[in-house]
Design brief:
mainly alpha, 11 helices, two-stranded antiparallel sheet
Length: 254
């Protein structure tokens, strides 16, 4: 091979390597790809029809927001998916609290509405990819204890957090909904971005939360997962009540 051909071949090789590096740097990561596909899988036109019927009266014709509903143009797909799949939207009364309910939406409805809202503008957390099987259960427990247990309870049973707000129990949430709640921080919950809870930590946390539903109870009866102190108090109360009954029975037979 002549020097000219060797130089040309070397130049082509450099160009191929540079092109490959450019493509690799611009390809979305696995989590980003999953979120992107989730946002674009729906039918935008059908989503627009559903939105006009069920959402526009509060959130505006094009997601600009009104006195009864927040703007949706840059809210992000995670928030839309979360409120729809958990039945928090739609509300019969815009002043009604957003609580978990049985969702009236089908999976197709959710996908179409997510796609339509995503078409209104970019911004906000995307639907996160989550793989609990890749998480570390012990790490998830530490993250939960530090960030979640003070409001949701040590066993995920939920509790009041003051000012009329409640942290719901976590027994019905799907892995995807748990991950979405972490990323969007539904009021009054704080939001945890990837800089605070990265992908491995998120996978670990979701794994731990789902583990709580089947975790063994060393105290026997869980009594609604109230915790060992409350459960011990209930045990003492029942024991004392039985003791009073026994004493009265003894007194009537002597």
């Amino acid at each position: 091979m002549s020097r000219r051909w060797r130089s040309a071949a070397a130049g082509v090789t450099v160009m191929i390597v540079a092109a490959a590096a450019f493509l690799m740097s611009h390809l979305p990561r696995a989590g980003e790809a999953a979120a992107t596909s989730a946002a674009t899988a729906g039918d935008v036109r059908r989503g627009a029809e559903l939105y006009a019927t069920h959402c526009a009266s509060c959130h505006g014709a094009v997601g600009e927001g009104t006195a009864d509903g927040i703007p949706l143009r840059s809210i992000g797909t995670a928030a839309v998916d979360f409120v729809l799949t958990t039945g928090r939207m739609p509300l019969a009364d815009p002043h009604q609290p957003m609580l978990r309910r049985r969702t009236p939406w089908t999976a197709r409805d959710v996908a179409d509405l997510v796609a339509f809202v995503a078409s209104l503008g970019s911004g906000g957390p995307a639907i996160p990819a989550v793989h609990p099987e890749d998480g570390d259960l012990a790490l998830g427990g530490k993250i939960f204890t530090a960030n979640c247990a003070p409001c949701h309870g040590t066993a995920g049973q939920g509790a009041a957090v003051g000012e009329g707000a409640d942290a719901p129990d976590l027994y019905e949430a799907t892995p995807g909904q748990i991950a979405e709640a972490v990323r969007i921080g539904p009021d009054p919950m704080p939001r945890f971005d990837a800089g605070t809870i990265d992908q491995h930590a998120l996978d670990s946390l979701v794994r731990y939360v789902t583990f709580l539903r089947r975790a063994p109870n060393p105290g026997g009866l869980s009594l609604g997962h109230m915790g060992p102190v409350a459960e011990g108090f209930v045990g003492w109360a029942i024991g004392l009540a039985l003791l009073v009954v026994i004493i009265r029975l003894i007194g009537t037979t002597t």
